[in-house]
Amino acid sequence: MTKFDLLRKTEIRIENIGLKKANLTDIAEQVAGILGLSKGEVLVVDYLNGAMILDVLNTCVNAYNIVGKKERLLKALSVLPGVFISDDTSIHSDGMLGWIAMDEKAATEALRKSEQMAGEILRNISKRVIVFSTGAEVAKNLIEDTNMPAIEECLTAEGYKVSRGQILQDDLVLISAKLMEAADRGYGLIITTGGVGAEDKDFTVEAVKTLDPDAATPFICHFEIGTGRHIKDGIRIAVGSYGDTLIIALPGPNDEVRASLGLLVEGLKAKQGKHVLAENLANNLRDILRAKMSHFHGHSFRQE
Questions:
Q1: Cα dihedral: 109, 113, 119, 121 (round 10)
Q2: How far is it, in rounded angstroms, from Cα 94 to Cα 289?
Q3: What is the pTM of this model?
Q4: Residue 168 carries which DSSP code?
Q5: Alpha helices in the chain (DSSP H)
Q6: Which of 13, 59, 98, 194 is most buried by its number of CB atoms within 10 A?
């Protein structure tokens, strides 16, 4: 269903329409019904010198419900008591509502073509990926970034176009800004690696939540705040969205990134919601971390 924001162009003007003891509520409801709107979403706001002004209160309308509806609208009004329609009666609107007076067949075909184009654009966007590695050690070339090549190889094989983003310093404002910028540039998928831990230098999960307060951020494990360098109560990952862009914050260890890629691809193909995808990734990472931590004793943490 193609919906458009009316962008404050919400007025419908019907000229050369006669009224005599007409019920304005009935008129408004009749117009709303023809345009696929609910009762109360159209109001008659003025009638002067044979011109009636209506206002559409719902500013987001289904395009197919308004194109070419002039004749149906006038016919529906003509059967109401006290409403008089003639050959001179006309409908005028600005913006999207102007489509009411368009030829229905031609306008509907144009809408279908625009939907096809929009769908193709969205499909292309969904296949554009940018990967950001985080951390001072990577930024200073102290350690090799092995995550980007692994992600690129995997997703390229699945038909994605993968771009290398800059290596991000451990700064919440910077990371948030770069994620937003990438989404605005038309990337359908953003992946970050690193910065999901419990120390004061870990900010990627918080950055995702800056863009999407409802992001899924399941724990991989819990820590006691104040133990070692832990200022947060655990390690999390994040899956969020910003507009049409999916944002995924993965851990930094390369084995954990590689172990997540199969589930990530599977989730993308299945179009899993962010909470389902996040939990699937987290469950797998918990198993990996459990195996790692089984070699250590006395570490103050607990699994989910």
A1: -160
A2: 60
A3: 0.63
A4: B
A5: 24-34, 70-78, 104-126, 136-139, 147-157, 172-184, 204-211, 254-269, 274-293
A6: 194
Regarding whether 216 and 155 lie in a shared domain, the answer is yes
Same domain? For 85 and 36 the reply is yes
Residue 122 lies in a domain: no
Torsion angle of the four alpha carbons 277, 280, 281, 287, in this order, in degrees rounded to the nearest 10: 170
Question: Is 51 within 8 Å of 17 (Cβ atoms)?
Answer: yes
pLDDT score recorded for residue 300? 45
Closest CA to 61 of 88, 87, 42, 78: 42
Range of the domain at 76: 3-116
Nearest to 80 by CA among 124, 166, 141, 14: 14
Diameter of the chain by CA atoms? Answer: 89
Please tell me whether residues 149 and 108 are part of one structural domain: no
Residue 45 has pLDDT above 90, yes or no: yes
**Domain boundary pick from 78, 93, 116:** 116
Q: Which residues pair with 53 in a beta bridge?
A: 13, 46
Whether 168 and 95 share a structural domain? no
| Paired strand residues for 174 | none
DSSP designation for 134:
B
What mean pLDDT is reported for the chain?
86
Q: Length of the chain, please?
A: 304
Residues 187 and 136 grouped into a single domain: yes
Is residue 220 domain-shared with residue 96, that is, in the same domain?
A: no
- Find the mean pLDDT for residues 222-245: 83
Domain count of the fold of the chain:
2
Provide CB contacts within 8 A for 123, sequence distance 6+.
none
Amino acid (one-letter) located at 196: V
Q: What is the pLDDT of residue 304?
A: 47
Most confident listed range (15-29, 49-63, 282-296):
15-29
> Do β-strands 51-56 and 128-133 pair in parallel, antiparallel, or remain unpaired?
unpaired
